[in-house]
Design brief:
alpha+beta; 7 helices; Helix Hairpins; 2 domains; five-stranded mixed beta sheet; Heat Shock Protein 90
């Protein structure tokens, strides 16, 4: 565990440094060449800053969430909302990041009117982490898909995020949702902190749900989140 924490600190330092460096360089270019830039180029530079700021925000939010979970200070502000419409909005946030890698983002069945009683901000964190991971591990020409379905007979709502990425080895799959854990291929080829999926699991479980993964090397992965679909009586969930 000490080794994993040391690697985590090193990874976080790198993950913070990269977007900060890009933001500084982009803003410097924007200011230096402002008079010569056309409107389209200005928009592109500002979009770069916004994307890198989003990356920083997700990283910092993950670290803060980890701390709150450890101290029992995650208070869920549950409301009833249309989960499918919410996920469609989140999907659009990643359009540019996917386009840069030539990845297709696909609405694979966002079932309109699928409502859930949950903390919308925390659910946003769950879906953003899953989409971010899927894009990160999918190569050019690949696909990332999201679906939201009601499983009324079971009283559940299902979120699925799938990709045609590199897949996860059977050896790594049992450890995916552990804090700081990064699979062998991920640690070697893809930057990250090993926090995203652990936080997904803990937030989902705080809602009385569960998350699972199915994956095949060279084919891709599917992450499935199951949540209670109805507002509980007396404020308590039952599965």
């Amino acid at each position: 565990m000490d080794r994993l924490k040391t690697m985590f600190v090193s990874n976080v330092s790198h993950e913070l440094r990269t977007p900060i460096t890009i933001i500084k360089l982009t803003v410097s270019n924007f200011l230096q060449y402002y008079a010569r830039l056309n409107d389209q180029k200005k928009i592109e530079l500002l979009e770069t800053v916004r994307r890198q700021a989003d990356i920083l925000h997700r990283l910092i939010e993950n670290i803060l969430t980890l701390s709150r979970l450890d101290t029992g200070k995650v208070f869920l502000k549950k409301i009833e909302f249309d989960l499918a419409a919410f996920c469609r909005t989140l999907l659009s946030e990643f359009a540019l990041a996917a386009a840069e890698k030539d990845i297709s983002l696909i609405d694979d069945g966002l079932q309109e009117g699928t409502t859930v009683w949950a903390d919308q901000e925390r659910m946003g964190q769950v879906v953003r982490n899953l989409l971010s991971n899927a894009i990160k591990f999918t190569s050019a020409g690949g696909k990332v898909m999201i679906a939201v379905r009601s499983r009324e007979e079971e009283g559940l709502v299902e979120i699925q995020v799938s990709d045609t990425g590199s897949g996860i080895s059977p050896r790594d799959q049992p450890h995916l949702f552990e804090r700081f854990y990064r699979g062998e291929a991920a640690a070697r080829d893809v930057p990250g902190t090993g926090l995203g999926l652990a936080i997904v699991k803990e937030i989902v479980e705080e809602h009385g749900g569960n998350v699972s993964v199915e994956s095949e090397l060279g084919v891709g992965s599917t992450f499935t989140v199951l949540l209670p679909g109805r507002r509980p009586e007396n404020g308590l969930w039952s599965l």
